[in-house]
Amino acid sequence: MILSMAFILGILSSLHCIGMCGPIALAMPAVRKNFFTQFLSWIVYNSGRTISYVAIGIAAGSVGTIFFRSGLQQWISIMAGIMILIWVIVPKTNPENWRMFNNNAIVRFIKKNMGRLFKRKNYASILAIGLMNGLLPCGMVYMAVAGAFTSPDFYEGGLYMLFFGLGTWPLMFILLSSWQMIDQKFKSSLRRWVPYMVGMIGIMLIIRGAGLGIPYLSPVVNAQSPTMTTCK
After folding, report:
1. What is the secondary structure of 151-216 as a DSSP string?
2. What is the pLDDT of residues 78-120, one digit of tens each?
3. What pLDDT is recorded for position 217?
4. 26 partner at 20 to 30 Å CA-CA among 66, 96, 118, 209?
5. What CA–CA distance (Å, rounded) separates 218 from 102?
6. pLDDT at residue 155, as a whole number
7. Burial grade of 97 (CB within 10 A; 0-12, 13-18, 19 or more)
8. Is the separation of the CB atoms in 222 and 44 below 8 Å?
9. What's residue 231's pLDDT?
10. Cα dist. 163→8, 42, 65, 211 in Å?
């Protein structure tokens, strides 16, 4: 269930991208201007981006392990859900809008080197651009990391972010292949609906942490162990 939530959040992230930053995504360089090389470039770029997400997920899962072993898994899930709801309701609280995350030496360094790599147009540079892009400030990624933070170990944290990254692929391919065909009103409607759908992810994390005995969605926590087990 938790991995399906990650995949759905990835789809929502790509909807957000279509609604707000489609032209930026289309700026991805290709080795040559033909369908095969453009498609292969897209695969390499998104693979790099997803690798960065997995690395972030491993780090988040590693920290989450500490709380999991302390028996705080439920509360971490609830707090992650509450944070996501707050970020949706009050956008200014989203780290994406914090100046310290958008205008610091690390972000400037990444953007500067991405600009240099755009000029090279080879697969190694495209992979590097994807890796760097995955590290740039993004509210949707922060929300995914909040979910990965509820993982019981580093492996599941990385797996959560892998599913999040893969969830962004299908619609991002549509974005690449038919951006000009997407109606502007449709793009705007996507942008309006994304916060509501992301809010549902936050609510699902809260329900999951509540241990209501709902199979897969809100399993009961074993009283002798902090591990969540699926109800039969």
Report:
1. -SSHHHHHHHHHHHHHHTHHHHHHHHHHGGGS-HHHHHHHHHHHHHHHHHHHHHHHHHHHT--BTT
2. 998 899 899 889 988 877 777 767 778 888 899 899 888 888 8
3. 65
4. 96
5. 36
6. 92
7. middle
8. no
9. 40
10. 9, 18, 19, 24
Distance in angstroms (rounded) separating the CA atoms of residues 83 and 87:
6
Q: What is the DSSP letter of 228?
A: E
Dihedrals φ, ψ of 229, to 5°? -120, 145
8 CB-near residues (< 8 Å, 6+ apart): 167, 197, 201
The token pair that represents 160 in the structure block: 């959560």
Beta-strand relationship, 228-229 and 220-221: antiparallel
For residues 205 and 73, the answer to whether their CB atoms sit within 8 Å is no
Place of tokens 């972030």: 56
Find where tokens 């949707």 sit. 140
